[in-house]
Design a protein that fits this description.
By secondary structure, the protein is mainly α. It contains six helices and no strands. The protein has a single domain, classed as dinb family like domain (Four Helix Bundle (Hemerythrin (Met), subunit A), Up-down Bundle), CATH 1.20.120.450.
Length: 142
């Protein structure tokens, strides 16, 4: 039951974030050197990098060992973070068991929830940026 609920929350948070990435105008997306760290592109990449660091798998690092350029690649990277790192961890772990990094996470569920809170925080930030540009960020996707 916990894994199913957390899995739905994961899908919802990522769907909302990816929708923000899609709606951001090209002129302010910002993945180039020198772009503001407050651009939606940079925020999205920060989220992906944080997830990658929390789950650290060699196969994922090998798959994404070059910099991401552009919106389409950014979306693929975020989808890969969800599908290749978070979903398998949620589906195959005993979420109530102690985490292998106890200095950071109490349990495996704690690891997932901290990452989801981090993603949700920055997803709210991307929505705020879109509203400031006069773009309707849409409803929180369910």
């Amino acid at each position: 039951m916990i894994a199913k609920t957390v899995g739905r929350q994961t899908n919802q948070v990522f769907a909302t974030l990816i929708e923000s990435v899609k709606k951001c105008p090209d002129s302010t997306f910002g993945l180039s050197a020198g772009d503001s760290h407050e651009s939606i592109g940079r925020i999205a990449m920060h989220i992906g990098d944080s997830i990658e660091n929390a789950f650290m798998t060699a196969s994922f690092r090998e798959k994404w060992n070059t910099p991401v350029h552009g919106r389409a690649e950014c979306i693929l990277y975020l989808e890969s973070c969800r599908d290749d790192l978070m979903v398998p961890f949620i589906e195959t772990s005993d979420l109530a068991s102690p985490d292998q990094q106890p200095e950071y996470f109490v349990s495996k569920l704690d690891r997932v929830m901290k990452i989801l809170r981090h993603v949700a925080h920055h997803t709210g930030e991307t929505g705020c940026l879109l509203r400031a540009m006069g773009i309707d960020e849409g409803k929180f996707i369910q």
